[in-house]
Amino acid sequence: MEGFTERAIDTIKNVPSGKVMTYGQVAAHAGSPRAARQIARILHSMSAKHELPWHRIINAQGKIVLNDEESRYTQRALLIKEGIKVSESGFVDLNLYRHDPFGN
Fold first, then answer.
1. Long-range CB contact pairs, 86-94, < 8 A, 24+
2. From first to last of its 104 residues, what are the pLDDT tens digits of the chain?
3. Has this prediction a pTM greater than 0.90?
């Protein structure tokens, strides 16, 4: 596994319960700010194997963006279970729930 992928997996694993990060944030923290799509690929292909909290990763607008309706429902339900308020249309308030691993 290459360094970026390892750092991305580590970043995702360390998003605390009740918080979210964006695909771009994870990519930047892993060392490649323009690799948000790679984060989506990692989540899709490695979440089960590495027990990643995939549901805590959303887009830059704070929205759940999974294409599959069942997956969107599951992600929303998991976030709500952790205490995150998610609108009916799948939006999360990033000002309240965004995790900043740099502490900014």
1. 89/63, 90/63, 90/64, 90/65, 91/61, 91/62, 91/63, 91/64, 92/20, 92/58, 92/62, 92/63, 92/64, 93/62, 94/20, 94/22, 94/62
2. 589 999 999 999 999 999 999 999 999 999 999 999 999 999 999 999 999 999 999 999 999 999 899 999 999 999 999 999 999 999 999 999 999 987 76
3. yes
